Amino acid sequence: MFRRALKLAFPHTLPVMAGYLFLGLGFGVLLSQAGYGAFWALMMSGGIYAGAMQFVTIDLLLTGAGLVQAALMTLLVNARHLVYGLTMASRYQNTGGAKPYLAFALTDETFALLATFPVPEGLEAKQYYTAVSALNQAYWVMGSLLGSLLGQVLPFDLSGIEFSMTALFVVMLVEQWRNKAARPSMLVGVLSALLCRIFFGENNFTLPAMALICLALLLGRKQLGTQEGAA
What is the pLDDT of residues 169-181, one digit of tens each? Predict the structure, then answer.
């Protein structure tokens, strides 16, 4: 029965596969260049499985960040999952022993798929949710592992590839700017980062900036929501 769930879920996950294999490949290459081999890529993608946070983890490892700093960074980077979790709580209510894994594997893309496509006829919801979650994580693990292996054998200099993550966020920033309704939130993020960069310096501004962004968005959520509605 679970094999049938995988078969029915697979077509829905194809767009995620394309993205996860590519981004996972980039993560694996960066991890390899940082001195961590395929074993670490497998363990991190299997045990952390947090997309952007895994890229951040590379910097945390290289800078020798402490547990408290790593915990705070993880909380701020992945705070959006609190919203996903609340949204999916009712759907996951009767999933039994699969519930802990479903909560762990709830990424942005998995949430989008589960919220968009109904459970196929003839399948239990638990089976479909688990199949989608497992397939998506498998794509990420495969991409990370392949990137790590390639990073060890590629014959050319990969210096500067770490900018790929910055480039990704720049593209996301441009997309936010093109969406008029999202501009106020984007400006909050940019201004908060600039202020914290000035006051805390280039090596210590990330956590304060993210905390300030969260606070500003929470305090101004009504006004921002009104502006988005008007747009």
Answer: 676 677 667 777 7
Task: State the burial class of residue 52 (Cβ atoms within 10 Å of its Cβ: 0-12, 13-18, 19+).
Answer: middle
Q: Read off the pTM.
A: 0.73
Contact call for residues 92 and 102 (beta carbons, < 8 A): yes
Phi-psi region of 107 (alpha: psi -120 to 50; beta: other; left: phi over 0): beta
Query: Cβ(94)–Cβ(100) under 8 Å?
Result: no
Q: What residue ranges do the domains of the chain occupy?
A: 2-153, 179-230
Average pLDDT, integer, range 122-143? 93
Integer-rounded Cα Rg, in Å, for the chain is 19
Q: Are 210 and 79 in contact (CB under 8 A)?
A: no
CA dist., res. 220 & res. 170, Å (int) = 24
Residue labelled with tokens 């480039």: 167
* DSSP per-residue string spanning 23-38: HHHHHHHHHHHTT--H
Specify the higher pLDDT residue, 135 or 65: 135
pLDDT band at 156 (very low <50, low <70, confident <90, very high): low
Compute the distance between CA of residue 81 and CA of residue 106 in angstroms, rounded to an integer: 8
